[in-house]
Amino acid sequence: MRGRRARQTRGAGFPRQGVTMTDPLFWHRLQFGFTITYHYLFPQLSMGLALLIVVLKAIGLRTGAPRWNDAARFWIRIFGLNFALGVVTGVPMEFQFGTNWAAFSRRTGGVIGQTLAMEGIFAFFLESSFLALLVWGERQLGERLHFLAAVALLVGSWLSGYFIIATNAFMQNPVGHAIAADGTFQVASLLEFVFNPWAIVQYLHNQMAAVVTASFVMAAVGAFWTLRREHPEVARISLRTGVVAGLVAANLVAFPTGHEQGRMVAEKQPVTLAAMEGRFESGPHAPLAVIGQPNVAERKLDNPIHLPSVLSWIAYGDFSANVRGLDEFPERDWPTNIELLYYSFHVMVGLGTLFIALMAVATLQLVRRRLESSRWLLWILALAFPFPYIANTAGWMTAELGRQPWLVYGLMRTAEGASPTVHGGTVLFTTLGFAGLYFVLGVVFLALVAREISHGPRPSGAAAAGHGH
After folding, report:
1. 410 within a domain of the structure (yes/no)
2. Considering only CA atoms, which of 39, 42, 43, 47 is closest in space to residue 155?
3. Helix, strand, coil shares of the chain as percentages rounded to 5?
4. What is the mean pLDDT of residues 124-131?
């Protein structure tokens, strides 16, 4: 029995199923994981800021108060810097489809190429064109047209996000396709593919998380200026807008979008749900693990703290529902890194809960007219902005680690999609190159953002000079 258990559990961590550090597949996955994680630091802020900029411009247009446009103008400049870095860091991922993942691209290009092309042709050019008008065209456009340009930027930014997520959703829940005689995937129903139920739920959850990131960044800058007694009017607008938007978005991330995403995983990927929760055995009245350490070798969760029957309700809307454990699935179909998947999921949920609590306290102080005078709370808000980035990264790690060992869930394994002729040493070399380049770009980006924060908002009259970036 002990020998059988050892054979079952060997490689329970990342190298399960024969993937080792000498295997090119390891380096292919590491490179794409690194580059996409770094890249997504930028789009999440862009998409969230696009909505908040529209809010600022709308209030400014309605009230006629210049301070709202001053605030919007500052955040448009931050958006521009962030958008530029997002474009630069996104390019290497596109090349990886042809270099590292050529077999995947050849088989699935007939499907995922549709949404990737839509993102580039429609959304990206819409977003970039109207960003130029927002940054440099305020005097020529006037207030109303400048507001409409902000709306178009929002549409382009969020449309771009949808096409990318629809592509990912096909990999999570493949629908609307047919498999040709040569094994390639082809579109059978474009509408079914584009409006994949998984895509809609995942998109709403993702966009609310992006608004959380932007809200925390906006509140942090407002709190920083308030603590330094600089730019009081725009500081107050940024602080209050960030706090209120952050409270609303953080709650929407949890419910209904996060709740519906959990039910989608329970329905479509039950083995992923079991791994996310460290659930090794099936049974009714499934408890929710608040904390614990997955022990894959012994098929148990160490030191757990449980909420009785809560997982059954989250997954199926019934406190007595049976939730399947990992014991019901072949080990070859388990996620390849159960430990990292479990911790990523719990980091995401834990931080999301703290976000709601922090913004609820800040909103209470805002209602009581004590927000700007609560220095302890301002310091927390000023220092809290990195945590939504961590939560978003953990969320995407949960989605992607949970899909493993599949590239297209249930149809194409990850090992089948890698380029067979690209050596691991080559991938490691280029990964080191990306790391060095991204480090330099990150330093430059932070320096430029710090300079903008130091300069602060420019008054309405300065817009005529076209001081954009």
Report:
1. yes
2. 47
3. 75, 5, 20
4. 86
Give residue 115's Cα distance to chain centre. Answer: 18
What does the DSSP 8-state code read for residue 331? G
Q: Residue 89: CB partners within 8 Å, gap ≥ 6?
A: 35, 38, 39, 42, 438, 441
Could you tell me the sign of the dihedral formed by the alpha carbons of 57, 61, 67, 68, in that order? negative
- What does the alpha-carbon distance between residue 35 and residue 292 come to, in Å, rounded to a whole number? 30
- Neighbouring-strand partners of residue 409: none
The answer to whether position 348 is within a domain reads no
> What pLDDT score does 460 carry?
64
Q: Is the pLDDT of residue 328 over 60?
A: yes
Q: With respect to residue 346, please indicate whether it lies within any of the assigned structural domains.
A: no
Q: Mean pLDDT, the chain, as a whole number?
A: 92
pTM across the whole model: 0.93
Contacts of 421 (CB under 8 A, 6+ apart): none
Sequence-distant (≥ 6) Cβ neighbours of residue 308 within 8 angstroms: 285, 287
- Residue 464 pLDDT: 40
Within 8 A by CB and 6+ apart from 129, the residues are: 156
Contact 85, 93 (CB under 8 A): no
Q: What is the pLDDT of residue 4?
A: 38
Residue 328, phi-psi category: left (phi > 0), alpha (psi -120 to 50), beta (remainder) = alpha
Residue 21 belongs to some domain of the structure: no
pLDDT tens, position by position, 46-101: 999 999 999 999 999 999 999 999 999 999 999 999 999 999 999 888 889 889 99
pLDDT single digits (tens) 442-457: 999 999 999 999 999 9
Specify which residues 186 forms β-bridges with. Answer: 178
Amino acid at 232: P
DSSP characters over 168-209: HHHHHS--SEEE-TTS-EEES-HHHHHT-HHHHHHHHHHHHH
Buried residues in 90-111 as b, exposed as e (16+ CB within 10 A): bebbeebbebbbbbbbbbbbeb
Between the CA of residue 216 and those of 45, 84, 408, 456, what are the distances in Å?
A: 10, 21, 34, 18
**What are the angstrom distances between the C-alpha of 291 and each of 251, 342, 346?**
21, 10, 8
Count CB-CB contacts under 10 A for residue 237: 25
List pLDDT tens digits, range 389-398.
Answer: 999 999 999 9
Q: How many domains does the chain have?
A: 1
Give me the domain span that covers residue 73.
40-255+354-465
- CA atoms 244, 398, 84, 120: torsion sign: negative
